[in-house]
Amino acid sequence: MAPHNELKRGSAELMILAVLEERQRHGYEIARFIDDRSGGVLRFHVASLYPMLYRMERRGWIEGKWVEKTGQRRRRFYRLTDEGRKILAEQRSNWHELLSALQRVAGLDPVG
Amino acid sequence: MDFREYLRRRLPPLTIQREPEVLDELAQHLSDLYTEARAAGLDHETALARATAALPDNSVDLADAIESASRALPGRITDRWRSSLNEPMPATPGALVMFTDLRRDLRYALRTLITNPGFAVVVALTLALGVGANAVIFSAVDAVLLRSAPVAEPDRVVSLYTSNSDGRDIFASSSYPDYADLRDSGIFQGVAAFASITLSLDANGETQAITGEMVSGNYFAMLGVPVSPGRTFADTEDRSGTPLRVAVVSHEFWQQRFGGAPSLVGSTISLNGNPYTVIGITPRSFLSPVLGRAPAVWVPMALQPEVRPPSAGVRRQLGSSNLLHERSVRWLNMIGRLKDGSSVAEATAGTAVLAQRLSTAMPDSNQGRQFTVVRLGDGPGIRTSARPLLQMLGGAVAIVLLIACANVAGLLLARAVSRRREVAVRMAVGAGTSRLVRQLLTESVLLAVAGGILGVVLSVWGVPLLYGFGIPETVPLTVNVRVLAFSLALAVVCGLLFGLAPALQTLRVDSIAALRDEGGAVATGVRAARLRKVFVVVQVALSLMLLVGAGLFLRTLQNAYAVDLGFRLGNTMLTGVNLDVRGYSPEAGQVVYERILERARALPGVVAVSAARVSVLSGNARSGMVSTNGQPYSRDTGNGITVRSNTVADGYFDTLGIPLLRGRVFARSDTATGPLVCIVSRSLANTLWPGADPIGKSVLSGTSPREVVGVVADSVYATPLERNAPPVYYVPLSQSYESGLTYFIRTAGDPLDVYPALRQAVREIDSQLVVGRPRTLQDDFESSLGEQRTMALLVGLFGAIALTLAAVGLYGTMSYMAGQRRIELGIRLALGAKPRSLLTMLVLDGLRLVAIGTALGLAGAVAAVRLIEAQLFGVAPTDVATFMGVAAILVIIGAVACAIPALRAIRLDPVVVLRN
């Protein structure tokens, strides 16, 4: 059970880090973005998204900041920290390794 | 659309600082969902539903996940751990996190339990019964068996006894000269002597009996008990011939009688009409090295001739009251302290040499006698008499606890099955296995602690019942810190042991299947159900064993009450008056007791009055040997039979209602100077002179023969439960003076009503005499059966608890199994099965478990009853009626426990069941 969970959590972390790579986003935007990009296959629930964001923030991978715009309620935007960038690079290469291994072993189609 | 209020209502309060921020953020998320849905053209209702659907069903889990994430350790530390342990997530990352984890576990457990209070209450109550029963027995085990004597280094303190010359009683009393030899032998670091006495205290114009002890001068020093304020006895104060009237008093006596006045030390109190100087006060913690004794006053042993004169017969024989030089009169108790590093065996070897020397030097008094050395409390006393009873009851309460635990485990198992989904969700959001096990265990330990505390509360009510076993009230049976600690520890161990299996069971869940629907977890249900069946069988077997015990004790009590005592119990008051405190001569004493009897006879409402040396049903008896052939009894020829004797005043048989069968009762003409007479019981007459007329025959006990003047019916003497009680012969008080007597007063009305008048009458005869506490013969009868009654009560109570718990367990299991078979039952009903046949099927299913349990229980009971054989009376330990009766009760209750859920199960509508 544990490795499976770990895999799932690891992939979710990777996605969040990747989504925040180019610019800061708020929680809803992150969920929306992942949903759109995956064509609805990967979907984040509130129950897993926010705990994960808070956990990553505690670890110092991302940083949240309240931003107020006139006429709107304040939103919390998350951006990648330097530490987060390092982790993202690390995870990317790990995942890449894993996926190409899977590809070779399980005969999966090449990842697009 | 603002969802903040909605969230505040949905989410349990978070205990993190940034709660408002979290709420803002989540509300914003829902609001975005709503706005997006509206933009896509949905109406308000649908958009609202879509937004709120983003929250999980169980908002507790969300809150928990948020809190847990917000408390995650900063990255640098976790990363270091991750790399060092090469583990993705630290399971137990350190004291700090463990503490926060524990707090979270507790909070979560509390929250979960509160959402299902019925379950929590049933589990806590079940455990409370089990733990409470154990706490009651442990309080006695602690007070009687575990607590060490309030003396310095109790491990080195030993009790010393002198054996009989025939070595049959190795725990007999000792003589003063033997004590002095043992003390001076150098075998022990120290040996002290003590003997209990009754003193009359004059204070505030009232005379009151108090218990005291006469002790050798070294008593307190040897025991290592500091006397403060004041001092202990000086050597000069315990010197035979020139004793000083000084006294050490107990802390309690000082507080109660003198209000704790510090001026008591150095002042004078009046004991037995003589002035005593109080020289010291013992510490509060010290009562006596002997459990159950609690003297108020200690006086030097050199005062023996004055405060504890021997019986009139011994006085006549010795021509003196002084026993301090008499080796042949054994009356005192000894207590010693082993030398540092010396063992009981070494001390025993040393005393054997001394005993041999004394035996050779003084064969008249010491031939064949040995000294016995045992650790304090291992000799005869409360500890040794209570031990087998407490062991038995300990076994009984252990069974109750096991049954309770089986029930709790059954309940937890059922819950484990119904919580599969929750566990699967938590696993999916990233909770580790160890986290979940800890969480589930926290819940069961929390329940156990609640049950333990409740159990201790219950035990406070139950503990006083134990005084029924003849444990004196001076032994404090209380629910103290040790009992509390024991109970809580017991509860926690039970919680851990019996929470572990269900917890592990819960985790054996295929989370995907459990999340998708309930189907994947059916296997867990089957395993749990099998385990629960085993629990039911065990419960039935154990409760049957307990109930068999209860049944046997009940039969014992019934038989004891049915014993033909041979005398009347009703309307009779008993009280003791001891003339020793006044040091009367036999002649003067004789006059005093006759005057007391005379005055008592004249009191209004009194029907008959008499007195006897030994009070019937007190558990005490005088024993002796009677010659069978007219020759003085000798051990070598074996020409004697063991008899009981009693010295009684005029009118004894009439007062008690013991029928005279032949000859006459004692009369005024039986004077000290006249021919010596006696009255024998029928069984003694039949033994000594079968078929012949006993009147005029002579009975030889000791050296002087007595002529039989009458035969009375057999009657119970020491206790109604005595098996093969020896026959009895009676001696008239007028020919054998006794200074301590129990008076029997039979009245027309309530016998206790005459007590004040009797007290007044005795005071008028001698104001220094103390009339003892009044009681009725009925009281004595009841207390003589106290042990049997308490045993029947406690084992019955524990049996009833066990039966109830087992029935609840059976009921729960049957309900659960019937629930599992709903669909099957529905199909059967739909296919035309008769409800009646389904009912029979379900009940028989349950009864099969009961039958297996009953069979196992009967076998276990047959094996276990020999442990209680000694406590039974008039009933065989394998009494078929008891065994069968108990089994029948169990099967009937089992059938009811099965029938209720079965009835409910077949009352279902097949259409409804099958549609679901």
Plain-language structure description:
By secondary structure, chain A is of the alpha+beta class. In chain A, 63% of the residues lie in helices and 12% in strands. Chain A contains four helices and three strands; from the N terminus they run αβααββα. A three-stranded antiparallel beta sheet of chain A has the order 1-3-2. In chain A, a hairpin with a 7-residue loop joins strand 2 and strand 3. In chain A, helix 1 crosses helix 4. Chain A is globular. Chain A starts with a helix and ends in a 6-residue tail after the last helix. By secondary structure, chain B is of the alpha+beta class. Helix content of chain B is 51%, strand content 14%. Chain B is built from 30 helices and 20 strands. In chain B, the strands form three sheets. In chain B, strands 12, 13, 14, 15, 16, 17 and 18 form a seven-stranded mixed beta sheet that branches. Chain B has a six-stranded mixed β-barrel with strand order 2-3-7-4-6-5. Chain B has a four-stranded antiparallel beta sheet with strand order 11-19-10-20. The radius of gyration of chain B is 38 Å and the shape is elongated. About 2% of the residues of chain B have low confidence. Chains A and B meet through helix 1, helix 2 and helix 3 of A and helix 2, helix 4 and helix 5 of B.
pLDDT < 50 stretches of chain A: none
- How many angstroms separate the termini of chain B? 38 Å
Q: First CA to last CA of chain A: what distance?
A: 29 Å
Estimate the strand proportion of chain B: 5-15%
Strand content of the residues of chain A, in percent?
5-15%
Q: Which percent range fits the helix content of chain A? A: 55-70%
> Can you tell me the overall shape of chain B?
elongated
The largest sheet of chain B is:
7 strands, mixed
Strand order of the largest sheet of chain A: 1-3-2
Poorly predicted runs of chain B are 81-94, 517-523
Largest sheet of chain A: 3 strands, antiparallel
Radius of gyration of chain A: 15 Å
| Helical content of chain B (DSSP H or I, runs of 4+) | 40-55%
- Per DSSP, the total helix count of chain B is 30
SSE pattern of chain A, N- to C-terminal:
HEHHEEH
